[in-house]
Amino acid sequence: MSYVIGVDIGGTNVVVGLLTGELQLVRKAKQPTGTANGADFVLGRIAGMIDALLQEEGIDRDELTAVGMGNPGIIDPERGIAVMASNMKWYDLPIAEKLSGILGGIPVFIDNDVRMYIYGEAVRGAGQGFRHVMGVTLGTGIAAAMINNGSPYYGGSFMAGEFGHIVMEGESALCGCGLRGCLETIASATGIARIARERIAAGRSSLLADWFPDEAQRAAITAADVSRAYDAGDQVAIEVMDFVGTMLAKGLSYAIPLWSPDVIIIGGGAANAGERLLAPLRRGMQGIVHPMYLDRIEIRLAEMNDDAGVVGSAAFAQARAAALPA
Ligand SMILES: [Zn+2]
Q1: CA angle 152, 157, 159 (to 5 degrees)
Q2: Of 88, 71, 95, whose CA–CA distance to 36 is shortest?
Q3: CA of 112 to the centre of ligand 1 (A)
């Protein structure tokens, strides 16, 4: 039998999955990344997790065809280098080569984590059967990826897909990137919570204000709380979701004519808002996206949750390994 490993690494946790050659997930494990201990520690931990999974299933290392890893930040998948992974403090680090060395030469392929998440959805999730898959993740920030006929679109310096940093007219919240009014300051889990807080601070009465009576507590309001208030019919929560969905539609109206995707997959934590967000999103696209796109495009929620990154990394590594010279 042949197996493949998928790794989904973030600043906080790392998930390692063991998959069959047919990309069925056999077993997975999760541990704190241990970022503060440095890259060698983190890669050693990942190798240890891989060996433990193999041992638990009675599989030898030489049955592994490849290891794939989705890494946050700007990644050079051709050379296997983490160019700029700010939250890991990894700069120009040859991650693939280092991990491959620890694992006795098994080929390791790395790519950006959002690209791998969408790759997973494209091959096994909501994008199955579509040739041109665009995915958007709404989490702390926003990112996007485009997978064409099974191949990720990278752009110059592998920086395509930074969809969260489209600046929206009339918006001024400071973004982590240094610009003001970026889409991700609005249409993200963080943005939903922030906008709700601002409306309450402006004196609007809302269930959210009742649930968080203390000024200091209101910093803890999350997008999930806004969804809860929405379901209870709260006017502020409904307005926030409408606004955020409309702004996301505006952002997508710039991307759709450029890329002409067959399907747009919405994933990430804020996608839990589901139809509360998708309904205003669909409405908001009317009149600003030409019907020749709108009539054929599907908008779907991601289906694989936490597994998309692991399965996507594994599938990507398997495809890359198959293309290696024998
Ligand atoms: Zn930005």
Answers
A1: 60
A2: 88
A3: 18
Cα-to-centroid distance, 176 and ligand 1 (Å): 6
How many whole angstroms separate alpha carbon 99 and alpha carbon 44?
8
Q: How many CB atoms lie within 10 A of CB 178?
A: 8
For residue 165, give both structure tokens. Answer: 């940093």
- Least confident span in 134-138, 247-251, 268-272, 295-299: 268-272
Q: Give one DSSP letter per residue of 114-149, joined into a string.
A: HHHHHHHHHHHSTTTT-SEEEEEEESSSEEEEEEET
Q: Which two tokens stand for residue 285?
A: 């696209």
The DSSP result for 239-284, as a single string, is HHHHHHHHHHHHHHHHHHHHH--SEEEEESGGGGGTHHHHHHHHHH
- Report the separation in Å between the CA atom of 79 and the middle of ligand 1, taken as the mean of its atom positions: 27
What domains are there in the chain, each with its CATH number? 3-120+306-322 (3.30.420.40), 131-302 (3.30.420.40)
Distance (Å) from CA 27 to ligand 1 centroid: 37
Half-sphere exposure of 230 (CA within 13 A, CB side): 21
Angle between helices 235-259 and 223-231 (to 10 degrees): 120
Cα–Cα distance for residue pair 308/286, rounded to 1 Å: 30
Report CA(173)–ligand 1 centroid distance (Å).
10
164-201 pLDDT, tens digit per residue, is 999 999 999 999 999 999 999 999 999 999 999 999 99
- Please give the single-letter amino acid code of residue 29: A
Kindly list the distances between the CA atom of residue 300 and the CA atoms of 15, 50, 107, 121, 187, in Å, as whole numbers in the listed order: 25, 33, 34, 11, 17
**Which tens digits make up the pLDDT trace of 194-246?**
999 999 999 999 999 999 998 889 999 999 999 999 999 999 999 999 999 99
Distance 185 CA to ligand 1 centre (A): 7
Model pLDDT, residue 263: 98
pTM above 0.70, yes or no: yes
